[in-house]
Amino acid sequence: MKLLFVTWWVISWLGKWITAASIWKLLSAAWFKVSTIKLDPYLNIDAWTMSPYEHWEVFVTEDWWETDLDLWHYERFINTPLSKDNSITTWKIYKTVLEKERIGHYLWKNIQVIPHVVDEVKEQIFTVARKYDITIIEIWWTIWDIEWPHFIEAARQLKATLWKENVMYAHVVPVLYLNYSWEFKSKQIQHSYANLASMGIHADMLVCRTEHPLPESIKEKLSLFCDIDASAIIENRNVESIYQIPALFQEQGVDRIILEHFGLWASSADITLWNQKVDSLLHAPDKLTIGMVWKYAEQQDSYMSVTEALKHAGIVFHKKITIKRLQADDFTHADTLQTIMDGIDGLVIPGWFGSRWMEWKIAAAQYARTHNIPFLWLCLWLQMAVIEYARNVLKIQHAHTVEADQNCQDPVISYMPWQSDELLKWWTMRLGAYTTHLDTDSRVYTLYSTYGPERLNKNTIQERHRHRFEVNPAYYDRLEQWWLHLCWKDATLWLVEFIEITNHAFYVATQAHPEFTSSIEHPHPLFVWFIHAAQKKNWA
Ligand code: GLN
What we know:
Blueprint: E1 2-8, H1 16-29, E2 34-40, H2 52-55, E3 59-60, E4 66-67, H3 70-78, E5 87-89, H4 90-102, H5 113-129, E6 134-139, H6 149-162, E7 167-174, E8 176-178, E9 183-185, H7 187-198, E10 205-210, H8 216-226, E11 233-237, H9 245-251, H10 254-261, H11 272-282, E12 286-294, H12 304-316, E13 319-327, H13 334-341, E14 346-349, H14 358-370, E15 375-378, H15 380-392, E16 399-401, E17 410-414, E18 430-437, H16 443-450, E19 460-467, E20 470-471, H17 476-482, E21 498-501, E22 507-510, H18 525-536
Parallel strand pairs: 1-6, 1-7, 2-5, 2-6, 7-10, 10-11, 12-13, 12-14, 14-15, 15-22, 16-17
Antiparallel strand pairs: 3-4, 8-9, 17-20, 18-19, 21-22
This protein binds glutamine.
């Protein structure tokens, strides 16, 4: 059991997860069994109640746990599902300690941060690390934060518990470049190293975030002052795509340095396939413009999982995907839709919560359906498409969702009976992976079976979910009779998972979040076929 801790200190936004994920990529490509853990200082149970402005989208693991996006970043680098055990918040640690106290686990002891809380951190790390050769552990911590000492202390103690060669510390730091004096500055790194050392942790590797290539003189200086071998001062400079980082690390021997520290040996990791995909991503000859509706407009990356899934699919057809951000605020009435949608090859709308802009969304659904615009609609948008169809084709005039109007006359989208008392409590969410039976006559089955058959288990697939409302079974008959294939209902709950219209360029909506399981090596079939249709403007 080998542990690699990834720390930071000076500022956030250094791409700590990119460092951890890229190392993971290299080590697993060298055939080691590797996992990762994120240690989060928050007292939130999970990411459900964290600020979307700081954490963006919420990610869900297969085993129903809501985490911040770091776990998604890891998964898309490695294509391996993580579980709730890979996300440890301070809440999880304290909850367990306090529960153990009530059952007399620590009888006649004063319960303290050291040893009890720190021991619990170690125990929860072991729960994962026991099953792997190497576990990479990211600690969320910057200067003056006072929420992390139990994590840092656990990281320190583990070196003594597991012996020196089994524990390694990689410290992620920013190198500053002053444009006005044309010089690199590294004093902040020396402070950071000294501060970490004062807590008993001596970094074995420095990963330097930098805008420009690092001169040897800076590496030598850092090596001298931080007592780290110059070869372990790693340059992590700005690159066009984050997917280039594993190659950048490999060139500098990051995997070799780590394996040497752990006393392990392997022939060099083969990431040729990965690098080829990155190359196609960066050098795709043609462009495709996909419209995406944005909710958190000020945040460039708020739907990163969806924009990345589109880029992954673009690689298959050598297309560079350009995202046109459509602001729902701009859509005042239907005739502005035409101007706004002008020049887009396809429309993707990510999931969201709340009734804001709902009437606009319904109008957009009608526009895309009647103007043959290829669209792939996710989660809430399946619900909007159903409302649109119910109103405009089935003439159920007052069709709506209870999310917007609890007492609506025709709740085509509704909560299920077992949710009603507790609506809006977190446990009423449908979270995590659910198995779905696909009708083999359907388009959706064809999409999965021709691109990504490895996702099919006979005629079932698993997709991740994160939503509360469902297509109301009371309306299945009417909906089915008219149009959509509502044939794929969740295997146990018998709920609508996909809808499609066949006489349309591409009209597929899903209640799930397929974007969470897309990667450059394994683009998701729905996104691939959507891009296929968008480039031809037709999927036939
Ligand atoms: N608000 C909708 C629901 O809870 C959809 C959620 C989503 O798009 N993730 O059902």
